[in-house]
């Protein structure tokens, strides 16, 4: 089971008294299939935010394991003043739980440069990679990300339909080599050339039903309307993007 799900089940039992995967799925308003997918691959970014809102566990703790488990509640103005006074009256202390794990060998990260593919006229190329292994439409921008997919790429987020998880100005991290399951975030290119960042809700022989985080309603496309559909791992903030030159 993925470590993020181990933490989610721990938090669900500790904070809400939820005992089974079915209880957790119901609390997060997710299908059992989605929760099963999370057990294998890890919780999606949207799922972590949902867990923080509904269960009360920190999305950062779910992703990294860094305490505290419980999401920090916004303090009132008087509490913030009192906290600041207490901080100024004593010597600063280090939080030992946040120190690096000494058992992790230096240089063991699979992180590498992942390049941004530009979106001309709102769409992406029909083929992202050439037969020679060259990225079509690659820009000089990239982010250093951990991935074992040699065909991974980034693409700019356009529009607000997937907010607050994916916001304009940021980027979507796409891993074409990862199998897409129901409930996953996906990047879909249509035969018209339009490219959509959506959530896969239904997949049948006669087509796909896609939805959004920030807008009601769904879209349905037949197989012959779709060029490709790729798995989207998570958003990447603009401040993480670097330039080669």
TrEMBL record:
InterPro entries: Cro/C1-type_HTH, Lambda_DNA-bd_dom_sf, LexA-like, LexA/Signal_pep-like_sf, Peptidase_S24_S26A/B/C
Record region (Disordered): 75-95
Superkingdom of source: Bacteria
GO molecular function: DNA binding
Domain Peptidase S24/S26A/S26B/S26C, chain residue ranges per copy: 146-212
Keyword vocabulary terms for this entry: DNA-binding, Transcription, Transcription regulation
Gene3D superfamilies per record: lambda repressor-like DNA-binding domains (1.10.260.40), Umud Fragment, subunit A (2.10.109.10)
A matching Pfam family: Peptidase_S24
PANTHER family to which the protein is assigned, alphabetical: FELS-1 PROPHAGE TRANSCRIPTIONAL REGULATOR, PTHR40661
Name recorded for this polypeptide: Helix-turn-helix transcriptional regulator
